């Protein structure tokens, strides 16, 4: 049997004809988005209707119904076909044969099929028991057969949904929350699930179900466009991968972006995040309204009972209570709304005042209030009035409630009106596994974290504003700290700070990474390190603010960015810098003498002619008086008779035992008179990657073998690396080795940035040994998958390397790591 498809071409109603027409449609570059999804649904309708007609000509009491996404005519290239064969319970044998004639051709084409065969009563009963089935039936659409049967089912299902909404909507909300907890928030994930994550297509479908209940409705502005954008991305994902997948994996993002005509993967993620943010915000508003309606329904019977069945005063509904919060701002029904006399068009500070009041009260901003303020809003004069600046600081200092209030303002464009530079960081992805958030959300999270530190600084207002602006330069090319300093200076002046305060805010933004990078990558015993930080900071007050901002920034980044060890290093650096700013000179590192333990280990190493070592756990006092001490790592002391290859040998043995090196100091010890020989002392801080530390005796035995050449460290590490291959498709950027200018008077500082891997420090140490330089100390740090290590090296005379030699060593080390 042949028929004409929607393009005017003859097609076979069998699988082959449909498959060819489907392929032609999917290869039409001119048709994409909603038109292609609709055309694909229409083409599939025609094919299935033909199969139905051939299997049940003139059938009565049976119909074929599309449900779910297919019922909405939203077929992506690899979407499932959700089908219900509906029958009146008559000739069940004929219905069973018809089902086979429908399902098998679908399976033969390799299409995914979600199918069921039910009577209207069975469908209704199943929907009552299974919420997901009921949601699918809300989008039921007739394809073929008895139209009256389909229509009756649709009418019944909708009526049941509306009657049962007070009971079923809470269950639907719980389902959405469970899914969000499991899948995460779409607007922040680097590899998001477009369907299941919070703010994804499932949530958009849930909002349609809420609207169908007539109990509440979602904010419609931008919602259809956001949902359409996610569907477009899913279409492109299906076409580029050839698979029925909803997860936007890293290795596929560039291809998907190209399919959609976007610049790159970042542009793709930004569009996905913006769409998800619209859907997530609409969901927050809608579910809040559902809760309000259900609460009011449960209160009315009790209220009527209290009033004896009568009506409220005046014969109408009781007037809702309104409690004043600030000028022009009141609380009503658990939300912050505008007072009746409020005039947004004449009160430019009103949005900030309302937001600050809402955040301080821990209440959401009413959607209609925000839209009313947005409709009448106008830009604040520059500089801002003092009240506007104070309200912004109050909002930023309100803690966790700030996040939801800020998102409400942002959804209606008020943040962009107040801070035009915000648009460059809005929904901007951060391709770093350490970061949990987009740039804009990270800035708000940093302000939230900083609000907990306002009691420990003398200028909490400057801390909060710097927290809000510290990464604002990430929307511009180049070093974001440098670009951010310029923007922060402009913004701080615009919102009304004086010249001195503007300079402090700009300095905090410019150097917001200074403390943590210096503390983890530089030798704190080197006077040049401390003096350079003191010169950059300039004053004790700025140092105090920078210390708080550093911790807030790290805590807002993610758990991998902050630890007790990092906190202790930063605190140590701050203490030293504060002393310099107070006029004290930093001690010369050459003046420090070996301890009794150092001398004991050195003498034992000389006596035995072999390495000796000790392991000692380090802790700091607990944060709470009743708590346990917090671990800072383990101090590893090793004394070795002076010989070549000590650094790579020790680093290799530690890598074999899965010990992460945080800092490594190497120096030669002068032995007491009468003792022959020379000893190297290694004072290292290490941490176990998994489980507990290995025994010191085992470490020593492997170190002896490594030094005498009987332990093949390279081979052992290569075997382990091969057993854990890197994830397919993730290509790490090449290593980069640089010489840090003027970082120390006592040594040349070589900085290595590379993909973290077992044995990296071993490879670096061996390359530096081959280059003929001595490593005085090393400072290893890891951010996500990236290692950032600094090595203090000297020449044969114990002095810093000449500039040309330093550059040559760095270049050779980079070539070695790239090989």
TrEMBL record:
Q: Does the keyword tRNA processing apply?
A: no
Which residues belong to any copy of the ACT domain? 635-718, 749-819
The name under which this protein is listed is Bifunctional uridylyltransferase/uridylyl-removing enzyme
PROSITE patterns given for it? ACT, HD
Domain writeup: Has four distinct domains: an N-terminal nucleotidyltransferase (NT) domain responsible for UTase activity, a central HD domain that encodes UR activity, and two C-terminal ACT domains that seem to have a role in glutamine sensing.
Give start and end of each HD domain.
439-562
Entry keyword set: Hydrolase, Magnesium, Multifunctional enzyme, Nucleotidyltransferase, Repeat, Transferase
């Amino acid at each position: 049997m042949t028929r004409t498809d929607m393009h005017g071409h003859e097609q076979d109603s069998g699988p082959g004809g449909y498959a060819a027409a489907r392929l032609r449609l999917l290869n039409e570059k001119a048709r994409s988005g909603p038109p292609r999804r609709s055309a694909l649904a229409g083409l599939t309708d025609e094919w299935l209707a033909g199969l139905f007609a051939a299997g049940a000509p003139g059938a009565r009491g049976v119909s074929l119904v599309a449900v779910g996404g297919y019922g909405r005519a939203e077929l992506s290239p690899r979407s499932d076909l959700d089908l219900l064969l509906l029958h009146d319970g008559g000739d069940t044998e004929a219905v069973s044969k018809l089902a086979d004639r429908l399902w098998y051709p679908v399976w033969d084409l390799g299409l995914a099929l979600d199918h069921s065969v039910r009577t209207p009563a069975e469908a209704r009963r199943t929907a009552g028991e299974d919420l997901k089935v009921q949601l699918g039936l809300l989008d039921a659409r007739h394809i073929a057969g008895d139209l009256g049967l389909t229509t009756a089912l649709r009418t019944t299902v909708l009526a049941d949904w509306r009657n049962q909404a007070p009971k079923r909507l809470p269950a639907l909300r719980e389902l959405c929350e469970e899914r969000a907890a499991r899948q995460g928030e779409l607007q922040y994930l680097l590899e998001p699930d477009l369907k299941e994550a919070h703010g994804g297509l499932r949530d958009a479908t849930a909002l349609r179900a809420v609207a169908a209940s007539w109990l509440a409705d979602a904010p419609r502005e931008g919602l259809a466009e956001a949902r359409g954008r996610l569907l477009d991305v899913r279409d492109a994902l299906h076409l580029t991968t050839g698979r029925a997948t909803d997860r936007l994996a890293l290795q596929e993002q560039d291809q998907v972006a190209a399919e959609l005509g976007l610049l790159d993967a970042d542009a793709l993620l930004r569009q996905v995040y913006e769409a998800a943010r619209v859907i997530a915000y609409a969901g927050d508003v809608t579910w809040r309204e559902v809760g309000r309606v259900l609460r009011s329904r449960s209160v009315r019977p009790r209220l009527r009972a209290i009033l004896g069945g009568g009506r409220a005063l005046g014969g109408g509904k009781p007037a809702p209570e309104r409690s004043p919060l600030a000028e022009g701002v009141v609380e009503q029904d658990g939300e912050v709304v505008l007072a009746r006399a409020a005039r947004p068009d004449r009160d430019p500070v009103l949005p900030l005042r309302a937001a600050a009041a809402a955040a301080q009260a821990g209440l959401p901003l009413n959607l209609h209030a925000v839209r009313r303020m947005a409709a009448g809003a106008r830009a604040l004069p520059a500089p801002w009035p003092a009240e506007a600046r104070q309200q912004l600081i109050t909002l930023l200092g309100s803690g966790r409630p700030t996040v939801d209030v800020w998102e409400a303002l942002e959804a209606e464009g008020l943040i962009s009106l107040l801070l035009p530079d915000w648009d460059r960081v809005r929904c901007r992805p951060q391709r770093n596994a350490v970061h949990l958030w987009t740039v804009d959300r990270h800035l708000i999270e940093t302000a939230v974290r900083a609000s907990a530190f306002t009691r420990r600084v003398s200028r909490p207002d400057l801390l909060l504003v710097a927290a809000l602006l510290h990464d604002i330069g990430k929307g511009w090319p180049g070093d974001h700290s440098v670009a951010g300093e310029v923007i922060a200076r402009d913004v701080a002046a615009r919102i009304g700070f004086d010249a001195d305060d503007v300079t402090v805010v700009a300095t905090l933004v410019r150097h917001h990474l200074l403390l943590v990078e210096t503390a983890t990558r530089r030798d704190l015993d080197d006077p040049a390190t401390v003096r350079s930080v003191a010169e950059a900071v300039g004053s004790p007050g700025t140092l105090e603010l920078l210390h708080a901002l550093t911790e807030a920034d790290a805590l807002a980044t993610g758990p991998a960015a902050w630890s007790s060890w990092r906190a202790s290093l930063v605190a140590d650096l701050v203490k030293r810098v504060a002393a310099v700013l107070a006029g004290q000179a930093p001690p010369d590192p050459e003046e420090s003498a070996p301890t009794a333990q150092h001398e004991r280990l050195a003498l034992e190493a000389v006596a035995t002619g072999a390495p000796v070592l000790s392991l000692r756990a380090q802790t700091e006092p607990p944060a709470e008086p009743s708590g346990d001490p917090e671990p800072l790592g383990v101090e590893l002391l090793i004394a070795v008779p002076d010989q070549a290859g000590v650094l790579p040998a020790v680093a290799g043995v530690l890598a074999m035992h899965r010990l992460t090196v945080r800092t490594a100091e190497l120096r030669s010890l002068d032995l007491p008179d009468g003792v022959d020989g020379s000893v190297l002392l290694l004072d290292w801080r290490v941490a176990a990657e998994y489980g507990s530390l290995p025994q010191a005796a085992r470490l020593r035995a492997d170190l002896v073998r490594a030094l005498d050449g009987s332990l093949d460290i390279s081979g052992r590490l290569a075997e382990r690396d091969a057993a854990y291959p890197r994830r397919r498709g993730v290509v790490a950027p090449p290593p980069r080795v640089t010489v840090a200018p003027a970082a120390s008077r006592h040594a040349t500082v070589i900085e290595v940035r590379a993909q973290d891997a077992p044995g990296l420090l071993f490879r670096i140490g061996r390359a530096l040994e081959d280059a003929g330089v001595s490593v005085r100390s090393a400072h290893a740090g890891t951010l996500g998958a990236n290692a950032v290590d600094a090595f203090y090296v000297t020449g044969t005379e114990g002095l810093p390397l000449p500039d040309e030699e330093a550059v040559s060593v760095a270049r050779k080390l980079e070539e070695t790591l790239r090989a």
